[in-house]
Design brief:
It is a single chain. This protein is an alpha+beta fold. It contains seven helices and nine strands, in the order H-H-H-E-H-E-E-E-H-H-H-E-E-E-E-E. It folds into two domains: about 120 residues, 2-Layer Sandwich (60s Ribosomal Protein L30, Chain: A); about 35 residues, Wheat Germ Agglutinin (Isolectin 2), domain 1, CATH 3.30.60. Helices cover about 40% and strands about 20% of the residues. The strands form three sheets. The protein has a five-stranded mixed beta sheet with strand order 2-1-3-4-5. Helix 3 runs parallel beside helix 4, helix 3 runs parallel beside helix 6 and helix 5 packs across helix 6. The chain starts with a helix and ends with a strand. The mean pLDDT is about 95.
Length: about 200
């Protein structure tokens, strides 16, 4: 498929709608999630059949949630704040997993794009510069959607223990603020259960 066909696909449209716009990061997440799910021969999770572990909280994570069906609310979307474009997908059905990591040379914006990113995010771009930024951003997004998976990512079996399923437990009030809190997320201080926000 070429980039336009991918962008017109239902899957990509759902990712763009969830994220709010099309950008290179969303395209990377789309490609990583598709590659990982294909490697595992998995379908989108309805419940906790699949676990996704992302190592960045950037744009790519949104495409991962949409395509894998893994969410914070179901407890099968895990964030590790490592600042890396790495996605690990685990299958509870077969116990297998795949680690999808962005190759170092796969994504490096050119000097013009980098300068415009700084200007736009800093609120210093002129209307013409903003238009050029959007043009380059879309061009980079299209390029990432068309490149061979092997040029973008290294895929390898995951070496990670399967995380436990989501915990469901009745809340208890924090001894300091009184807000309902999961007991497993509280600390005992002087015999009183205190939420992490009050510690």
């Amino acid at each position: 498929m070429n980039s336009q066909e991918i962008m017109n696909s239902e899957d990509f449209q759902r990712c763009a709608a969830f994220h709010g716009h099309i950008c290179p990061g969303l395209s990377i997440g789309y490609r990583a999630a598709k590659a990982g799910m294909a490697w595992l021969a998995e379908q989108r999770a309805e419940d906790e059949e699949v676990v996704a572990v992302v190592e960045t909280d950037a744009c790519s994570a949104d495409a991962v949630q949409v395509l894998t069906g893994c969410t914070f609310g179901k407890g099968n979307f895990i964030f590790k704040d490592h600042g890396k474009m790495v996605l690990t997908i685990l299958s509870r059905k077969n116990g297998k997993g795949v680690r999808v990591s962005l190759r170092p040379e796969a994504f490096s914006p050119d000097a013009e794009h980098t300068a415009l990113i700084r200007k736009v995010t800093g609120g210093e771009a002129s209307p013409a510069e903003e238009a050029r930024f959007r043009e380059l951003h879309l061009q980079r997004s299209r390029d990432l959607l068309e490149r061979p998976v092997g040029d973008l990512f290294e895929l390898a079996p995951a070496e990670m223990a399967m995380p436990g399923k989501a915990r469901i437990e009745p809340s208890e009030p924090c001894a300091r603020c009184g807000e309902p809190t999961m007991p497993s997320k509280m600390e005992s201080i002087d015999g009183k259960k205190i939420c992490r926000g009050c510690l």
